[in-house]
Amino acid sequence: MLSRSAIIGFGMYLPAKRIRAAEIAAHWRQDPLTVRKGLGIEEKTVPDRGEDSFTFACEAGRQAISLSGIQSSEISACFVGSESHPYAVKPTSGMVAAALTLHPFCHCADLEFACKAGTAAIQIIDAFVRSKQIRYGLAIGADTAQAKPGDALEYTAAAGAAAFLLGPENAKNALCRIDATLSFTTDTPDFWRPAGQQHPSHAGRFTGEPAYFRHVREALKGMLAIGKYEPKDIDHVVLHMPNAKFPARIAGEFGFTAEQMRLGLIVECIGNTYSACSPIGLAHVLQHAGKGDTILLVSYGSGAGSDAFLMTMLKNGVKLPADKRKPQYLTYAEYWQLARQRH
Amino acid sequence: MAIPDTAPIVYRTHRRLQHKMQAGTILSLTTIVHPPTGFGVKPRSVGLIRLDDGSRICGQLILPDPHADSRALIGCRVQPCLRLHRVNEQGLRIYDVAYDVLSGVRDADAPFPGYILALTGPSGVGKTTISEALTRIASQYAERVPIVTTRVPAASDNEEYVHVTDGEFHAMETAGKLAAITQIASTAEDRRYGYRSADIERIWQERKIPVVVTEMHLLQGLAARYGRRAILSCGLLPPGRSRRMMLSCLLHRLRTRGRDSAESIADRMKNAEGDLALLHSRGELFDHMIVNDDLDTVVSTLQGHMMELQKI
Amino acid sequence: MTADIFLAGAGQTAFGEHWDRGLRELMDEAVDRAIAASPCTALDIDFVIVANMLAEFANAQAHLGAMAASLLPHRPPAIRVEAACASGAVALHTACALLESGRCETVLVIGVEKMTDADPGVIATGLMGAADTERDVPVGMTFPGIFGMIALRYMHEYGLSREDLSLVSACHHDNAMENPFAQFHRRITREAVSGSTMVADPLRLLDCSPISDGAAACILSTKHRSPTRIAASQIATDTLSITERDCLTSFPATREAARRAWKEAGIRPEDISHIETHDCFSIAAVINLEDLGFAAPGKGIGLYKMANPPVTVNGSGGLKACGHPVAATGVKQICDTAKQLAASGNRYGLAHNFGGIAATSCIHILDHGNS
């Protein structure tokens, strides 16, 4: 059997600006309580002028490299997953590799698979490390999600990034081993954005059972079977979080407790950061989990597919450095100004 | 006429971003009420910032409170953040580093530590020979820094290395006693290398310049630890007009010096190609590039550089 | 000086907004006045040096030497020199070198700038060519911004107050009331300066020299004598970018040029009666007086507070009240220093002209003792 890879460093980045769901609701004259009960989201992150998926990916990547203690020049692969790459043609991963001064002989490419592009990047880096084609590689999920004003997605479409630096499982600073991974894929038209169009379209209630629930359920079942685990054996569960309700329903189906879900459920105060969504949930778990804990991560990308991972903590979790900036809350007018000016 | 921002100019601008991603201290600042064309309409705060490596730059400031008294911000710490600056006419995105002002966090002036002479180059180029000769001839003001390594001692090693076990190395690393660390994979074993801060700092106390034989990762580590400005970094190249000729010269030297097995030579040659590429692409890590054609010439060139440092 | 170089004649246009005149007309007027004030005729001129900074950028016109030569019937050899705002003094320095070498006996120096044809935003970008395009410009810097940072740092190090700094422009405007060629003929109070619109914190509108059109011309000669001799002509340089300066509150190039100028002229600061110094921004005047040796570091504002200072500073009104057609300023400073010496009967005057953040700093000392 091929040796396995491990996460040796991780990082995340959230913009400092926020907007409360109540503020958006007030603007559209909707009842804020109904909105919050329906989606389970309090507030979301908003990118500042001049922030984009590339700047996010760099900040998260920088933090991951710093935590790992290795030199950036020792990293020889970088894959970035996003639905909002800055260019249609000119890879974010190449720009990140140059900005972070990775080794110039570096495997790079950009990925798109709606909200699961970040975890797809992790799978690719995992394979490169396991096959010993590289020693260290960087997988990043980053997004500045766009939502049409007035659409329900406006409450949840947020911005952020998470980065994972993978290396051999026997590396000195190995934090969390990736034991196994699988993916479940179909062609399901729940959410899409044609080239050149600014905002995505989605299929309303069709995004529920035939899309999110079916794929997450299949991937979850398959992953538990491969690992020969029962739901109660997992210490931490991280699921893709388009809102707070969907992961709660899956948890109910499989019997995951609130304690198992607690660390990874971060959507309430951040929103859905798309390709960074479940990765940011994982970053939270990696800070607080204990040595020996098992982690099950299942992402979901519209179109559609799910990636699932089984991981084991090799050490106690490592806290990320505290953010020295304070969150700034925007009015809807300020939020709309920023959205309008975004390149 | 607008500010020049064609693709080659953007390319050169982006190559400097890495250097600007450092924390720093505000030396002075201003708010330009009407920024020039292409910089938007809102007043723009800019500062003259001393970065932690000692260099200075002009950078955009992100003030937490736009009405704060500017004078009170002199001496405040800033942290870098990458930003899309603007998009040129052809849709090319121009990124720059802006600085978040951490008001309330002030700086006490950190004293400059001292200079280190770093010799970097591919295996077989002659780093060890040169550093031996240099520190022998210039022993009053130059001394070699031993490399701490977990690698098994070889018969040909002289006092270049300090050999420790994996456990000892790990202990030094955890205790923060190593100024720079790297791991070099090879077909035989995984070896770790580093320098002890105590070795470097003792040489400074004796008013001498530490000389290190190093490679890319260790060089980056030293620059991170002491500041890029503290390193007089010399890249050593084998003679040869083309890279192919340089590599064949290295191969010849490795074979002739008789220190390495055929396997080891193969390993080193593979690394050498990478090293030569890095010497070319990471020019900003080097102050001087020296071709090692004749030992005496190289040693006296290095002595010359070190005399310049002594004068400062 | 290895030869006696005399200021044979000098003249200038008024500085201001000249919608009816372009580069050629401005030069023509200044040259006419200079020749009329001299014992020379046009045909006595061996060589023409034009000082100009922005013509390629703002007027699409290079090759000003050729344009100026055609103003004279015999079209003598002509060149153009540039050193940002120090172009005028650098042109004078070049003329001195030609005269000392013996290649020429009479040189016409013209400083000219036509700034009002282009948009102010375009002019601001062009002026930033005096700083570092790679290190200073990309962040969105302007010259008021650079001097704003210098002023803030000066206030931080020496405790200079906003009210005191406002004295500088108020004084300069007072002086200009007597100068028919100045752009502004109105007094301004310290309060008006402190309360004018903010341009780049802490510099306000009335701290900044204006955009102006204008030309000034001098005839320097070893053959045609006059009461005024050039006793010293010195240039010194410093780093282009503010990021490479170790100190923001003093300009080493000015100190160096001054040191060499005292030596060349064989005099000391105490011997100077009139100074025309480069006040592109009010804070520059304060720093200049310290760098030139007329005040201790941090005490430059003192000269503006004295009722009877030992030297007159910017008796013409300086750049602020006269206007600052960039390359014309260095030449105009010579015109004004010579006028002040002739009127007062004192012997020595000093003109100080710099470019960028004193990346090029020039000193000329005039000796009016040759009557």
Q: CATH superfamily of the largest domain in chain A, please?
A: Thiolase/Chalcone synthase
> Multimeric state of these chains?
heterotrimer
CATH topology of the largest domain in chain B: Rossmann fold
Structural domains of chain A: how many: 2
Strand content of chain A: 25-35%
Question: Within the largest sheet of chain B, what's the order of strands?
Answer: 1-2-3-5-4
- Give me the count of strands of chain A: 14
Instruction: Please summarize the sheet with the most strands of chain B.
Output: 5 strands, mixed, barrel
CATH topology of the largest domain in chain A: Peroxisomal Thiolase, Chain A, domain 1
Percent helix of chain B: 25-40%
Mean pLDDT of chain A: 94
- How many extended strands of chain B? 14
Total helix count of chain A?
Answer: 11
Instruction: Give the class of chain B from helix and strand content and strand pairing.
Output: alpha/beta
Describe, in plain words, how this protein is organized in 3D:
The complex is a heterotrimer of chains A (343), B (312) and C (371). With 343 residues, chain A is α/β, with parallel strands linked by helices. Chain A has helices spanning 21-27, 32-39, 53-68, 92-99, 117-130, 208-227, 245-254, 258-262, 267-270, 277-288, 332-341, and strands at 5-13, 17-20, 43-46, 75-81, 107-111, 136-144, 159-168, 176-188, 191-192, 201-202, 236-239, 294-298, 303-313, 328-329. Chain A has two domains: 5-174 and 320-341, Thiolase/Chalcone synthase (Peroxisomal Thiolase, Chain A, domain 1); 178-313, Thiolase/Chalcone synthase (Peroxisomal Thiolase, Chain A, domain 1, 3-Layer(aba) Sandwich). Chain A has eleven helices and 14 strands. In chain A, the strands form three sheets. Chain A has a nine-stranded mixed sheet, with helices on both faces. In chain A, strands 3-2-14 form a three-stranded mixed sheet. In chain A, strands 9-10 form a two-stranded antiparallel sheet. In chain A, helix 1 (21-27) crosses helix 2. With 312 residues, chain B is an alpha/beta fold. Chain B has two domains: 7-106, OB fold (Dihydrolipoamide Acetyltransferase, E2P) (Beta Barrel), CATH 2.40.50; 116-311, Rossmann fold, CATH 3.40.50.300. In chain B, 34% of the residues lie in helices and 31% in strands. Chain B contains nine helices and 14 strands. Chain B has helices at residues 7-15, 17-20, 127-137, 166-174, 197-205, 216-226, 243-257, 262-281, 295-311, and strands at residues 24-32, 44-51, 56-62, 76-87, 93-106, 116-120, 142-144, 147-149, 161-163, 178-185, 190-196, 209-214, 231-237, 288-291. In chain B, helix 3 (127-137) crosses helix 9 and helix 7 runs antiparallel to helix 8. Chain C has 13 helices and twelve strands. By secondary structure, chain C is α/β, with parallel strands linked by helices. The mean pLDDT of chain C is 96. Chain C has a domain at 6-119 and 212-221: Thiolase/Chalcone synthase (Peroxisomal Thiolase, Chain A, domain 1, 3-Layer(aba) Sandwich), CATH 3.40.47. In chain C, strand 5 and strand 6 (203-204) form a beta hairpin. Chain B binds chain C through residues 1-4, 12-13, 27-37, 39, 44, 46-48, 55-60, 70-71, 74, 85, 96, and chain C through 57, 121-122, 124-126, 128, 133-142, 144-145, 148-150, 152-153, 155-156, 197-203, 242-244, 248.
